[in-house]
Amino acid sequence: MDQFNMPGFIVLILFYGSYLCKQILLKRRGIYTNRLGRGNKPARTFKIETSLKLSTFSMAAVQILSLFVIKEGSLILPQPAIRFAGISIAFLGTGVFITAMACMKTSWRAGVDTTQKTILIKSGIYHISRNPAFLGFDLFYIGFVLAFSNPLQIIFTLLCVVILHLQILEEERFLPAVFGLAYEEYKKATPRYFLF
Length: 196
Fold this sequence. Notes:
This protein is mainly alpha-helical. It has 6 helices and no strands. α3 runs antiparallel to α4. The chain is elongated, with a radius of gyration of 17 Å.
């Protein structure tokens, strides 16, 4: 075990643990948050959401392998400064993700869902980014791949970042029908990620 494995393990527990805790807390209130690939939705949406679900679950497995199985000698970027920056970015992404979930309160959902009533959140971190949870995922994944830059981790990071972006585009097609002009105005005033 090298010096980056323990902080890598901690950030994994924080990221995935916060996601699971949010799901459990909302489920106790009768709110089912994981709507990825579920329900009656267009085939394109179903494919993107199913791909997202499979890729993110696979990514978690790859991250665990990167921590405990794949050796440090297989890293493409073994420099300690890059690895430290990666761990820092992963923690930043986790913080952004947790903040986004907290701001969404009971409107938190993963995937397009027409069966549950939610409200459009525009305050807090959603005032500076329309998709801070996805931004948190991206930062977490990019940070982790910098800290543990084995080929498998790189491939899955690229795959997940692309599929997350496709999911954002899919949700942007769905949200105007739900929130109407309010979403269109929000979309014009607030960047998709952070600066763009």
